Amino acid sequence: MLKIRNVKMEDLPELVVIENSCFTIEEAATIEGFEKRIHLIPDSFFVAEEDGVIIGLVNGPVIETAYITDDLFNYIKANPASGGHQSILGLAVAPQYQKQGVASALLEHLEIEANTNKRESITLTCKENLISFYENHGYINCGVSNSKHGGVVWFNMSKKLK
């Protein structure tokens, strides 16, 4: 059975393996990046577990702007208690668990938390091949992002919250 919970520092080794199996070295969060996120934003960093094994993750800080900026990959701060825009810097599922609803469950969990904390929207960037996945979850494609992260073309995706 799938269980989604807040991240803990001892999850770090498993998170790094999943991240590196889903993203190129240029795109993947670094160990230091994950350590900062676990320390500063555990309230918006969730892991999916099956039988005690971490199989997926979603994370990102709450930001003041409607779209992600590249500086967030290096500099983040603790989340405000309410308001702002929930960003997603990373959504990753171990390859052998993909296409089984894990990413959708993680997105849904993050959205519930974001609504509870009165966030204005959820914002993320994705590659072109994932636009339809996010559109199926209610996100709007807001066009090509200014992001140069990992040297690829990213699209801004946004979902207004209630």
Automatic annotation (TrEMBL):
Keyword line: Acyltransferase, Transferase
InterPro entries for the chain: Acyl_CoA_acyltransferase, GNAT_dom, SNAT-like
Any one GO molecular-function label of the UniProt entry: acyltransferase activity
Top EC category: transferase
The enzyme's E.C. designation: 2.3.1.-
Matching Pfam families: Acetyltransf_10
Superkingdom to which the source organism belongs: Bacteria
Entries under CDD domains matching the protein: NAT_SF (cd04301)
Ranges where the N-acetyltransferase domain occurs: 2-162
The protein's name: N-acetyltransferase
Species lineage: Bacteria, Bacillati, Bacillota, Bacilli, Bacillales
